Amino acid sequence: MNPTNTCSRLAAILIICAAVLTFTACPKSNTSTPPTPAPITVSNAIKTLADAGAGAAHSAIVCRDSGGCSPQDAAKIEAVVTVAENAVLQMNVVLRSPDPWDVQRGKLLQILQSIGLSTLQANVSANTYAVATAMLTAANTLSTILGGPQI
Amino acid sequence: MTLTLLEQLALAGMPYLPALIGDFVALFKKYPQLSPEQITAMVQVITSQSDQTALAALAEIAADQAAHPAH
Prior knowledge:
The complex is a heterodimer.
Chain A: H1 3-24, H2 38-65, H3 71-96, H4 101-113, H5 120-123, H6 126-130, H7 133-145
Helix pairs in contact in A: 2-3, 2-7, 3-4
Chain B: H1 2-13, H2 17-29, H3 36-67
């Protein structure tokens, strides 16, 4: 048998095998999902903060009415939630603006930090603070997403 | 005889095989991406929802403060 012929035959068989494997193999399932765009992630985090604020205000009212919290503490929660919900409205305006993402990110961080959530714990009782923890968690999550510090 | 024909076909197609495999790999890796317009639309929907939540919370607080002015 001619060695050149044998080499050609082997090469051809290898190519046929490769082609068969390529065309018949099951496509590998693509488990990696595309990353969620930053504005959508941030919009959702702001929505979570809005929900948490609404929950905190409602809980503070219930807590006060049931005698679990003092009226003064409930009023402090309401005051902070008022600032937080207004901040949500401002952040949504920023998100809907035509500014580039980097500019929006800076403005969002500035608004978030202006809420003053960090002083809340020192100003209310533990019972009252408990109703606001979800709001702090949501604010911290948002801050982390934006690349800001923990509150 | 048939094997010889296959061999000839395979040898003829050899230069094109890497490109063909590359096309298939690219096809499998392709996944739908959101367009800028779709992202803007989604942001509009989500921000609209959180606006409503925020306004409802502010309304509840205002109503409570009106009912409990001493607090």
